[in-house]
Amino acid sequence: MSFVAQVGALLAVGDLAGASALVSTAAGVDRELGSAQVALARQDPKTATGHAKQALDLGGGAAAHHLLSAAKLFGGDPQGAIDEARRAVGLDGSAKSRSSLGGILLAAGRAEDAVAVLKQVVVEAPDDADAQTNLANAAVKVGDHALAIQSYARAFECRPSDQRPIQQLVAMFVDLGKWMGAMAALDLSRQGEPPGEVSVALDLASLHIVRQIT
């Protein structure tokens, strides 16, 4: 696991102190990359930008561009964020790198572009729960509810311990027709015998809606 991934894993579980301690043991480009990650977790885009730029100067490559992209997005520069994410993909065209670009496009309000990028990502990496969730969120934005249902279900299948895709699926149905209308919309989505994993997600969404109604 790369140093960036190690720091990211600690931050993903909320261990900011552990991530900071790990960064303090590093030097050079790893220290700058890790410092940028920690600064982003602390919602400090200015400090994150400085460390990401230092990482670029030290040869941080795509990882540094992705961190600079996130810092620019937090700092209120969505176009700058997209530009940095595209530079990262130019250096690293992996599915993971393009998934990050898709997430930035979505956050920057470019849902149609995000759908186009993320559709390709999930073809290559169907088990990427974050990409599936981002694709579902983007699909909701462009009104492609069939794709959203499928992608939320795939995200839940990839990471069943994470209930957020189900909650977002419920929110989509509610937005379509409030609580009772959501039940009708959900029943309509069952037509045509959906795949097993989609059916499980719809069952869970139905349970959540029923609890809210009652």
What can you tell me about this protein's structure?
By secondary structure, the protein is mainly alpha-helical. It contains 12 helices and no strands. The longest helix has 26 residues, at about 165-190.
Question: What's the short version?
Answer:
The chain is mostly helical and 214 residues long. The protein contains 12 helices and no strands.
Strand count, sense and barrel status of the largest sheet are: none
Order of helices and strands: HHHHHHHHHHHH
Mean model confidence by pLDDT: 86
How much helix is in the residues?
A: over 70%
Distance between the termini: 47 Å
Uncertain stretches:
179-185
E-strand count? 0
Please tell me what the overall shape is: globular
Find the structural class using helix and strand composition: mainly alpha
Beta content: under 5%
- Estimated radius of gyration: 19 Å
Contiguous helical run count: 12
Topology:
Layout: H1 3-12, H2 16-24, H3 28-41, H4 45-57, H5 61-74, H6 78-91, H7 95-107, H8 111-124, H9 129-142, H10 145-158, H11 164-189, H12 196-213
Keywords:
12 helices, 214 residues, mainly alpha
